[in-house]
C-alpha cells in the first residue's frame, strides 16, 4: 500500500525563492541583458541606496538642507494624499438650456416641476430645467403653496441667484456695481412678510388703514418717539412655530369675532375671512421658517434682518395692536442672542420693552413711583412670575401694589405672553449687553428719545424684579 505524506508537514505556501544557497532568478532580470556596456564591462552591482553603509561624519549637513529635504517630503506626502477626481466635470450653467421663464402658458409644467421639487426627485434631474419667476414674491408664495422642504427650497433660491449672476455676467457691464444678493433676498422677504402681516392686521382689527399708518405714541413718558413706523431698510425676520394660530379671545380683546370687526362670526363672509386668515398665516409661517433657514445659511443680510425684527416689535407695540403684537413677539425671542450682540439694537428693544411694560402697568391702575423691591419680600422670597406664590405663607407685610398688578396681568391670556416676553427682553439685555442700558445724554435732548437717558428709567421696578417664567422663577436666578 502506497504511503501518503502527512498533511501536517505540508508547507502552507509554495516557496518562491527556490532551493537554498541559490540566488533567485527573475524572468527579466538585469543580469540577462546583453547590451554593449554589460558585454564589455560585465554586470556591476549597484545598490539602490548609495550610502547603504559607511559614516556621515565628514558630510556637511546644514539646517537649510534638512529643511529642504523635509519640505520635499511634506510636498510628496500632500501629493500622495490627494485623491484623483474621477467624477465627471461640473457642467457649466447655460441660461438658455438650464432655465426657462415662467409664463401663464407653462402653468401645467410649473405645477409638475414644483411637485417634483416638494417630493423626492433628485435635484440633479431638476437642475436641467429650472423655472425663473419675474417677481420674487411669486416664487416664495409658490414654494409655500407646494410646501417645499426648507433644504430644497434653499437650493431653488440658489439656482435663481445663479441665473441672475450669469445674466449679469453676460451683459458685460463692468462699470456697473454688482448688486448685493443677500440684501436683495432680505428686502424681498421683508416686503412679502410686511404684506402678509398687514393683511392679518386688517382682518383682526377691521381697519385697512390701521396697518399702514404710523401707530400713535404710547402714553408712557419718553415713549413718543418717531420710531413707530417701519423704516425703508426692510429686513426679514426669523421663524415662528409652524402652527401659529389666531390669538385667543379674552376680556381685553372682545369683539374680534363679532360683526363689528374684520372677522365676522357667521355667514359666508365670515368663512371667507377665516380662510383668508388661515392662508395669510400659512404664508407668514412658511416665509419666516425659510428666512430663518436662509439666515443660518448666510444667504441673508444679518444687520438688515435684525433691524426688521426690532422694528416689527416697535411698530405693533401699542395697546390697540396687542392682538398683532402676539404674532410678532416670537420674532425677537428667536433672535434675542443675535440682538444682544448689538448695543444699538439692544438699546432700542430695551427702551420700547420698558415703555410697553410701563404702559400696561399704567393702564391697569398702577401709577406709583418705582418701589424698592416689589417681589423679593422677606416672607417668601418668591418672584412675581408664579401666580399665587404667597398664598400658603403666613400673614406678613402688605402685598405690594406692583406685584398685584403683575399678577393680574399674568392671569390674562391676552397680556401674559406680552408681559413675559418684554420682561425676557430686558433681562437678557441686562445680562448679555449691559452697556446698552447706560444712561446717556447724547444730543443735548435733540436726539431720538430712545437714545437719550436709559431704558431702565421707564421701568417701574429693577430688571431682577420683573416677572419670569415659572421654570426660571427662583431666587438664585434673580
Account of the protein in words:
- The chain is mainly α and 478 residues long.
- The protein folds into 3 domains: 95-170, no CATH class; 180-318, no CATH class; 340-387 and 399-478, no CATH class.
- Helices cover 44% and strands 1% of the residues.
- Strands 1-2 form a two-stranded parallel sheet.
- The longest helix is centred in the middle third of the chain and has 30 residues, at 267-296.
- The termini are far apart.
- Keywords: Activator, Nucleus, Repressor, Transcription, Transcription regulation.
Shape: elongated
| Low-pLDDT segments, ≥5 res | 208-266, 371-396
Give the ordered list of helices and strands: HHHEHHEHHHHHHHHHHH
What percent strand?
under 5%
How many angstroms separate the termini? 101 Å
Which structural class do you get from the secondary structure elements? Answer: mainly alpha
Number of DSSP-assigned strands: 2
Domains counted in the coordinates: how many? 3
- Report the average pLDDT across residues: 75
Radius of gyration, taken over Cα atoms and rounded to an integer in Å: 37 Å
How many strands, what sense, and barrel or not for the largest sheet? 2 strands, parallel
**How many helices does DSSP assign?**
16
Walk across the major sheet and give the strand order. Answer: 1-2
Helix content: 40-55%
